[in-house]
């Protein structure tokens, strides 16, 4: 795929940081492969050397993986979920929006969810490859294991069954699995100490009502121009 830039964030990224309100793409590569199978257009909330914060609005058109016959992944039994052929499908993000927070070099991002009416629901720690910035967004690879953090600061592991099945299916080797567990342990230490970004007052944040919903481009899986910065 040719390297290209579009209206999605590129010019600002060349200067090092995206301005608030800039639309960018948040993408994930498939596991044990280089193709992208998740793409979510988001709006930049804050972009500093210490933090990238983005907002995914309700109704955003996204790309998500499905089985080759179109079956949603969550409907497939776990024992065959990671071995059957897959495809991707354009869809929409329903429900309330998601605020995503990522610190440079950390192997996780922290997502915030709300109930209707802006009642804060929980933080969600998504263990993943540290984000790679490119001209119009950020790329990563999901590591299956996650952590839910309640408003009272209690936490619990999520998707341990998927984490185990991914290893059994050959999508993650033993060394990488150990690294993901270690990353999870570090994230738990961050939670216990209630350090950034948990301590930042983000549950009270609200999006600018003037922001439009970013558009999912036709070439959402293009190869972009890598840029520096955290």
TrEMBL record:
The keyword Hydrolase applies. Residues 75-195 form the DUF402 domain. GO terms for molecular function: hydrolase activity. Coiled coil: none annotated. Pfam families: DUF402. It comes from the Bacteria. Gene3D superfamilies: FomD-like. This is DUF402 domain containing protein. It comes from Streptomyces griseus. The lineage of its organism: Bacteria, Bacillati, Actinomycetota, Actinomycetes, Kitasatosporales.
């Amino acid at each position: 795929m040719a390297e290209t830039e579009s209206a999605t964030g590129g010019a600002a990224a060349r200067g090092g940081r995206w301005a608030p309100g800039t639309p960018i793409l948040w993408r994930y590569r498939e596991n044990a492969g280089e193709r992208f199978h998740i793409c979510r257009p988001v709006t930049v909330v804050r972009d500093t050397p210490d933090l990238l914060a983005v907002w995914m609005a309700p109704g955003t058109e996204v790309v998500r993986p499905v089985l080759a016959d179109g079956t949603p992944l969550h409907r497939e039994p776990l024992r065959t979920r990671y071995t059957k052929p897959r495809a991707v499908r354009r869809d929409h993000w329903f429900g309330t929006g998601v605020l995503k927070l990522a610190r440079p070099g950390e192997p996780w991002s922290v997502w915030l969810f709300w109930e209707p009416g802006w009642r804060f629901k929980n933080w969600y720690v998504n263990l993943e490859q540290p984000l790679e910035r490119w001209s119009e967004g950020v790329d990563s690879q999901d590591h299956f294991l996650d952590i839910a953090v309640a408003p009272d600061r209690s936490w619990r592991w999520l998707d341990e069954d998927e984490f185990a099945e991914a290893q059994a299916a050959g999508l993650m080797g033993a060394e990488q699995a150990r690294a993901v567990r270690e990353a999870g342990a570090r994230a738990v230490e961050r939670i216990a100490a209630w350090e950034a970004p948990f301590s930042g007052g983000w549950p009270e944040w609200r999006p600018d009502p003037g922001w439009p919903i970013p558009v999912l481009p036709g070439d959402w899986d293009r190869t972009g121009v890598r840029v520096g910065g955290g």
